[in-house]
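Q: I'm writing up a methods section and want to include an example of the input and output format. Could you take the sequence below and give the corresponding predicted structure tokens, formatted cleanly so I can copy it straight into the document?
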Amino acid sequence: MGMFLIRDLVSPRAWLALIHHLVGVFVGLVICVLLVTGFALGFGLIPLALVGLPVIGVTMRLAEGIAHAERARFGFLLGVRIPAWPTGARAGYRWGVVPRWPMLRDRTVWGSLGYALLRPLVSSVALTFSVGAWAYGLVMLTLPLYNSYLPAGGADLDGTVIHGGRWMLVSVAGGIVLVLAAPQIARGLAAMDAGLTRWLLSPPSDLAARVTELEESREAVVDAAEAERRRIERDLHDGAQQRLVTTILTLKRARHAADSGSEDAAKLIDEAVASTERANDELRELALGIHPAILSSGGLAPALKGLARRSPIPVTLDLQTQDRLPERIEVTAYYVVSEALTNAAKHSQASAVHVTVTAADGDVRLSVSDDGVGGADPAGGSGLVGLKDRAGAAGGTLTVESPPGKGT
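A: Here is the clean output for your methods example:
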């Protein structure tokens, strides 16, 4: 125990904790001024034609960046991980800076504001106690060296001048205790600081963060499903429905021509048959986009082989799955591969695509790679974002590696 306390005097962790408190004072002052000023100015300008909303949005964006930087500071100086909330707030922003109303009630926003208000105070208190322990400890430890040279002839404690070896021994003993305790005080206050920061800037637990991420993915998938429903409705109205209406009108004309003995009846019937066949083709293509029948009847492997055959880019399949997977996993994997192949055909300029599916111990790993130009950015378009949301809704994750010039 004694050696442990002595080693702590020169331990990097103890001195990093002291540096953490010192840096926190200055960082806290800057954070407090920026965020408090931003929110106060924004809310104050709301009555002025809602001019304050963009100011609030910019301040909230700034708060997100500050929270990220503070998590990095805690990790660098203290080695403490401060979990982050899942990226991509549910409410989001309009035009990038105007927060939606639910966003203003989000805990992450008010947690950041509370952190900004408390940071200067917490760091100042922690620095005072940490430095105070070192200062008082060193003063008491070295008191016998200069006690007799003090103006009063000794240390003056509330009018009582300390003399004699007994008082010096007590002073040295107290100084040793404080010096040995100083690193523990600094580290203990740093641990308390980390706990407070985790409470303000992090979800209650990793499970809560996962639940929040799943909720976001579910909402994104619901929105995507509603958009898909509207697309299908529009395609049916503009495509197959119009052709069927044309077929009905053509058949009525054919019946009228037949009743009148006209030779145009056979020609009109041929037109109706051709129109019906085109409507049937359009309905088949639309059904393939909804849910391929082969996926339900044959499983993931035949469905992916069908995608590979229809791809304009040669596709190599490596399917290391023996048994049928859960339906939601197969559907998710199918649509991820389908969207990935579509993206590759549109943007990658690739000459080949390789798809690998492995299943082991209840986990499914799907990999789609090409030899194209690379440079795919999930933040740059809705396709990859949609894939991430779909994977997240099924309890999975999506990782994109696309260095420029080296494929995706």
